[in-house]
Task: inverse folding
């Protein structure tokens, strides 16, 4: 199966690891990520304004490109996923935004939210299946105690994101189990890492990351995994536990880590 | 699971969770549901009884001196006619599966108020000692969280106020502070709602005399810690501050909802029900204990959240209404009821389906249609149940249904007069 792939800008700069390991792992799992041509920045936080139109357009463009190919869009960065998913929901359900965006876009057939937006983890869970994934693992990460860190962008608002139970998620735990490691469940796994506040009030953000790290370490986690470059940035400020992108561990378990790094 | 205390009695099957103690301890397969049960006699839980499962045992039969054990008893369906029905199906607390933030399923020290009620009860699983259910230790810091699922207008909870929680939480807080003055009690609330005689005084007593710490604000997260304590994150809206505090126990005031059986019963009785599955009263102010369906009366939480005195009042009123109905030999009703013309009725059942009061049934009747005698299936209106709403007269495709006093001919005559 082929998917339209929307990497997003962070995956070209600070979060290259999230990207390269995912592409290799996808090959090993038997699906292809076709990068959308000339994709543009998802707009970060700006498209979330209910009166914003212009900043939503780059997402709409990506969604239209995937519609043309008849493929679902796959994302890796939590923020891009959040923006694409929510813009898609707006295009489907909010006539005012849909009409205005389509007026700007000038597509022959107006876009009405037809494209399915999937996070890479959702592809693993719903399309590949964690059982199949477990079957393809070559180097199970046996004995590693890993805490899943979700952050907020993947989970909330729960009704729109439809990713997992926002208060008690388990998809990353299931993923950790599938690659042979031991998930450590801890309460703060869906608490905010501080987000963009780290740019203005570093101390506040650090406090938030610290309490997440402390709780995870307290419950026995030896490392954290995340899907979000911003969470990675914030969590790394507090040096208690090492933090990895989930794709790096996936590549390692599938035995393609070296190939990806080469 | 809380450490189990040995159960008295001879029954060897002792591993079923006690329903009355909210599953906090176990009971034997033969058991009296609770101390005040009516009738106060034991019942056998067939699913866990060794005699029913394997055919062996029969110990209770041997030891019962009265010879009251009978394994051959079967459920019976009793069919009788009644003049009135009082619905009193009660309530249950909502499931907390969707409220992962309170860690109810993760930590045994996060309990519901109903569970605390059992813990504080002398006949309960801890014999009335306030203990943490994880390790049996005496707690020093207890946090109550109000409105768990109440006043929650999303897909998870209930939009309404459960009404009883403010008062029982104040009661629990005072009970604990009275019995264990060394325990700090904190209550997080949205609003303290205490309308009712002496209710506000009761709550003020909790604050002023018993030193219960009330904080206006909701809790966003309860995080179990490795040392066994619970980290409670909440907000103090009056102070404009985020609060993080450690607690040994957290007690959740869970929203109440009508018992799940009520939907089935309401359908059976054609009694109307609202979006929250509460039975609707005939009039919110003037007929609060009756269902719109004649002969069906309501009492208790099946009609809406209410406390014990209100439930007692409503039950009394419903009983009096029933007596008023049944004491007379004749029934006074509205004469403007529907009537079916047996010659026109084709027995299609359309009227029966639209009748909101369940007043229409079908009978095989002998009719004389212009000299031809035959038996037909025709609609019959129960004049005591019909409220004269006219829904059936509009729905009837053959024009057989007519509302007495507002008959089709009368209405057409009115229309003619207006149009003249």
Result:
């Amino acid at each position: 199966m082929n998917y339209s792939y929307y990497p997003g800008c962070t995956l070209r700069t600070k979060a290259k690891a999230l990207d390269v390991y995912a592409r290799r792992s996808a090959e090993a799992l038997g699906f292809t990520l076709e990068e959308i041509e000339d994709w543009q920045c998802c707009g970060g936080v700006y498209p979330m304004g209910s009166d914003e139109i212009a900043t939503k357009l780059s997402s709409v463009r990506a969604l239209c490109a995937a519609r043309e190919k008849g493929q679902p869009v796959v994302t890796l960065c939590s923020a891009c996923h959040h923006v694409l998913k929510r813009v898609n929901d707006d295009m489907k359900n909010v006539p005012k935004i849909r009409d205005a965006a389509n007026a700007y876009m000038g597509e022959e057939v107006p876009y009405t939210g037809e494209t399915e937006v999937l996070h890479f983890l959702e592809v693993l869970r719903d399309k590949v299946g964690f059982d199949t994934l477990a079957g393809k693992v070559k180097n199970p990460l046996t004995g590693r105690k890993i805490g899943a860190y979700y952050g907020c962008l993947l989970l909330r608002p729960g009704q729109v994101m439809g990713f997992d139970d926002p208060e008690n998620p388990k998809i990353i735990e299931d993923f950790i189990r599938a690659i042979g490691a031991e998930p450590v469940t801890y309460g703060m796994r869906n608490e905010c890492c501080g987000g963009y506040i780290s740019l203005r009030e570093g101390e506040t953000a650090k406090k938030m990351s610290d309490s997440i790290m402390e709780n995870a370490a307290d419950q026995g986690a030896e490392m954290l995994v995340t899907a979000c470059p911003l969470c990675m940035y914030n969590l790394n400020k507090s040096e208690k536990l090492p933090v990895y992108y989930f794709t790096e561990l996936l590549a390692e378990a599938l035995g393609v880590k070296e190939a990806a790094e080469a | 699971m809380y450490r189990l205390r040995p159960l008295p009695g001879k029954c060897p099957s002792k591993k079923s969770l006690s329903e009355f103690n909210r599953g906090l301890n176990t009971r034997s397969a033969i058991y009296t549901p609770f101390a005040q049960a009516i009738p106060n006699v034991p019942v056998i839980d067939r699913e866990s009884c060794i005699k029913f499962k394997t055919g062996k045992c029969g110990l209770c039969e041997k030891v019962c001196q009265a010879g009251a054990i009978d394994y051959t008893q079967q459920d019976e369906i009793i069919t009788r006619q009644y003049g009135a029905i009082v619905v009193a199906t009660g309530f249950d607390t909502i499931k907390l599966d969707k409220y992962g933030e309170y860690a109810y399923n993760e930590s045994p020290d996060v309990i519901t108020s109903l569970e605390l009620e059992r813990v504080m009860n002398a006949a309960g699983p801890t014999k009335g000692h306030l203990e943490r259910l994880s390790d049996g230790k005496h707690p020093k810091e207890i946090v109550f969280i109000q409105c768990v699922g109440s006043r929650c207008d999303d897909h998870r909870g209930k939009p309404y106020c459960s009404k009883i929680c403010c008062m029982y939480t104040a009661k629990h807080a005072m009970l604990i502070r009275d019995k264990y003055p060394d325990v700090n009690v904190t209550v997080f609330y949205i609003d303290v709602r205490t309308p009712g005689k002496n209710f506000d005084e009761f709550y003020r007593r909790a604050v002023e005399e018993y030193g219960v710490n009330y904080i206006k604000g909701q809790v966003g997260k309860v995080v179990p810690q490795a040392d066994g304590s619970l980290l409670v994150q909440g907000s103090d809206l009056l102070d404009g501050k985020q609060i993080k505090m450690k607690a040994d126990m957290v007690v959740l005031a869970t929203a109440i909802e009508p018992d799940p059986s009520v939907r089935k019963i309401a359908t059976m009785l054609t009694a109307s029900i609202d979006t929250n599955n509460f039975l609707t009263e005939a009039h919110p102010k003037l007929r609060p204990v009756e269902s719109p369906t004649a002969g069906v009366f309501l009492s208790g939480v099946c009609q809406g959240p209410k406390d014990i005195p209100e439930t007692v009042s409503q039950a009394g009123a419903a009983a009096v209404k029933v007596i008023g109905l049944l004491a007379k030999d004749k029934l006074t009703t509205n004469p403007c009821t529907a009537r079916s013309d047996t010659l026109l009725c084709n027995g299609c059942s359309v009227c029966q389906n639209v009748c909101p009061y369940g007043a229409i049934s079908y009978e095989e009747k002998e009719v004389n249609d212009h000299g031809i005698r035959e038996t037909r299936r025709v609609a019959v209106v129960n004049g005591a149940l019909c409220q004269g709403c006219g829904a059936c007269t509009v729905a009837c495709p053959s024009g057989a249904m007519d509302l007495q006093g507002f008959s089709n001919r009368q209405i057409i005559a009115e229309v003619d007069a207006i149009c003249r």
The first strand of chain B starts at residue 16 and ends at 17. Chain B has ten helices and 20 strands. The two ends of chain B are 82 Å apart (CA to CA). The interface with chain A takes residues 98-101, 103, 105-106, 155, 221-226, 231 of chain B (CB under 8 Å).
